[in-house]
Design a protein that fits this description.
Largest sheet: 4 strands, antiparallel
Helix content: 55-70%
Shape: elongated
Radius of gyration: 55 Å
Strand content: 5-15%
Number of strands: 4
Order of helices and strands: HHHHHHHHEEEHHHEHH
Number of helices: 13
Structural class: alpha+beta
């Protein structure tokens, strides 16, 4: 193959590769779209976006949309917002929606709201169409001890001026729940709340619960109020049970003390009986000594034995319940001569 032909082939290949690289790196179709839409974007700006690692379509398409809607936005600010991690398309859609609803909102405010992590388009839509937030069931106890379970629906509208730094829906729900608990807890009777549920709404609205939040509360409606437990009666029952257990413990303590005292008395009686038995064991010795020394006569001794026998007989009759024998010298008892 001649050298001229080979050089021509290499030239054609180089031209094809150059064209492929050019049409891949330079967004020709996007540049044509800007010309057709009447948006002034130079080819150098599109190529510069490639060098800055920015997808040109993420800037040019929202720019075309904003220009068609009559908005004046700067492409450099759009690039800065995209590089900061923002959503340019959502910001432009929010600006178009705000313009249609006659809501004063500029690009800087919209960009700040988007970078704060809030959905700016949803906020604009909520400003036009208020949102209803339903609270969970809130349990509160009136002064008569009856528990009430209430559920509320809060109608809110987004406050665009307080979207940056304002509290969210969780704060609104918590404050409304606090207001319900306060209102029910200050009622003397739970029937007052059941008869006038709007009492909760008026009290909660008067507290200004939307202060420091990103919303404006339009209304608070009580969706449902149910009667729960009789907490007062339950507390009284628990207190009575506690008192019963305390009294039972004290009674057990007194019984244990009485048993201890009884044991002590039995021990004392046993000790006294032992002493009596010991003393009785000394009696025969003393009597023998008295007889030996002549201090006790024989007749005195027999008379004492008769008295002892008579006493034992009476104790035996008393234990068996038999009639007692007549007393006297001939009462049936043996007499010692």
């Amino acid at each position: 193959m001649p050298d001229s032909a080979l050089g021509m082939i290499f030239l054609i290949i180089a031209i094809v590769l150059l064209l492929i690289f050019f049409f891949t790196f330079v967004p020709i179709s996007l540049w044509i779209s800007t010309i057709a839409s009447g948006v002034k974007v130079s080819m150098a700006s599109l190529v510069g976006m490639r060098f800055r690692r920015i997808n040109p379509s993420r800037i040019v398409l929202p720019l075309i949309k904003a220009t068609k809607a009559g908005l004046k936005v700067d492409m450099n600010e759009m690039e800065a917002h995209l590089l900061a991690g923002g959503n340019v398309d959502r910001v432009i859609n929010a600006l178009i929606a705000a313009q249609s609803a006659n809501i004063p909102l500029d690009f800087d405010d919209c960009r700040a709201i988007d970078l704060a992590g809030r959905d700016v388009l949803q906020a604009v839509q909520m400003s036009v169409n208020p949102k209803v937030i339903e609270t969970p069931v809130v349990a509160a106890i009136a002064k008569d001890g009856i528990e009430l379970r209430a559920k509320a629906r809060v109608t809110v509208r987004a406050n665009i001026e307080r979207l940056v730094g304002g509290a969210g829906e969780e704060t609104i729900i918590a404050r409304v729940g606090e207001g319900i608990v306060t209102t029910v807890g200050s009622s003397e009777n739970h029937k007052e709340v059941l008869e006038n549920p709007d009492l909760i709404s008026r009290t909660v609205l008067a507290k200004g619960l939307d202060a420091g939040t990103a919303f404006e509360i339009l209304s608070i409606d009580i969706a449902d109020v149910d009667v729960g437990r009789n907490v007062g009666a339950q507390l009284q029952m628990d207190q009575a049970e506690a008192d019963r257990r305390i009294a039972q413990a004290k009674a057990e303590e007194r019984r244990a003390m009485a048993v201890a005292r009884e044991q002590e008395m039995k021990a004392s009686v046993q000790e006294m009986r032992a002493k009596v038995v010991e003393a009785e064991a000394e009696v025969p010795k003393a009597m023998a000594k008295a007889l030996t020394e002549g201090k006790l006569g024989v007749m005195d001794y027999y008379q004492m034995q008769n008295v002892i026998s008579d006493t034992r007989m009476r104790e035996s009759i008393a234990e068996t319940g038999a009639p007692a024998a007549p007393s006297g010298e001939d009462g049936g008892r043996p007499r010692h001569a």
